[in-house]
Amino acid sequence: MIIASTRPTRIGGAVGDWFTPIAEAHGGFTVESVDLREIALPLLDEPHHPMQQKYQHEHTKRWSATIARGDAYVLVTPEYDFSPPAALLNAIQCLAKEWMYKPVGLLSYGGVSAGLRSANQLRIICTANSMMPLPGAVSIPFAGKLVNADTGRFEPGEVQDKAARAMLDELVRWEGAMRTLRQR
Ligand SMILES: Cc1cc2nc3c(=O)[nH]c(=O)nc-3n(C[C@H](O)[C@H](O)[C@H](O)COP(=O)(O)O)c2cc1C
User: Fold this and answer.
1) Which end of the chain is less packed: N or C, by CB atoms within 10 Å?
2) Would you give the distance in Å from CA 85 to the centre of its chain?
C-alpha cells in the first residue's frame, strides 16, 4: 500500500490506517505500508532511463528495492487539480521494470468527485508501465468529513469496507494471473 499524500495536514495517513487492517484481515497478502512522505524521493534525478536500472543514487536504489519486492499495489491517492499528487507521479516515474506485470488497486478519495479523476489518470500512467489497474476501485467522496474529529480515525462505513474487500479479492486473482508474465 502506497500512501501518496505528503501534506503535513493530510488525511491520507488516516485513510491508510483504515485500509491496512482490512487488507491484513483479508489474508490474501502480506501487507507493507509505504508512505511517500517518509520516502521523500527527490524529483527524478537519475541520469539514465529507469528501464536501464543503472541507478546512481542510494534513494533510488532503496525505492527500487521497496517496489521490486511487491507483487501487487494499492495506491491510496487524493485528487489535486483533477490529478494525482506530484509525489506519486514522481515515485512511479523514478522506476519502470519494478512495476511491470503487477496489478494495482486504486483507492481514491476527495470531495464530490471521490478522487475519480485522479484515479483515471493513474490508470493511463500505470498501463504505461505494464501494470494492470483493476476495474473495481475504492472511491470515497467527501473524505474529509469521514475523519472522526475526536479520534482522528477515518471511518467511511460498511459500504467502503465492502468495496475494499472486493478490490482485494480482485487483486489476488490478477496477481496470480500476472505472476506467469513476471516469470517469463
Ligand atoms: C492542492 C490541492 C488541490 C486539490 N484539488 C482537488 C480536486 O481537484 N478535486 C477534489 O475533489 N479535491 C481537491 N482537493 C481537495 C483534496 O481532495 C482534499 O483536501 C483531500 O483531503 C486531500 O488529501 P490529503 O489530505 O490526504 O492530502 C485539493 C486539495 C489540494 C491541497
Assistant:
1) C
2) 11
Q: 10 alpha carbon to ligand 1 midpoint, in Å?
A: 9
What burial class does residue 81 get, using C-beta atoms within 10 Å of its C-beta: 0-12 exposed, 13-18 middle, 19+ buried?
A: exposed
CA–centroid distance, 51 to ligand 1, in Å, is 32
For the chain, the structural domain boundaries read 2-183
- Strands of the chain, DSSP E: 2-3, 34-35, 73-77, 103-109, 132-133, 138-140
Q: Is 3.40.1280.10 the CATH classification of the domain at 2-183?
A: no
- Calculate mean pLDDT across residues 36-58: 98
Query: What CA–CA distance (Å, rounded) separates 11 from 78?
Result: 9
For the question of whether the overall pTM of this predicted structure is more than 0.90, the answer is: yes
Query: How confident is the model at residue 184, as a pLDDT?
Result: 74
pLDDT of residue 181: 96
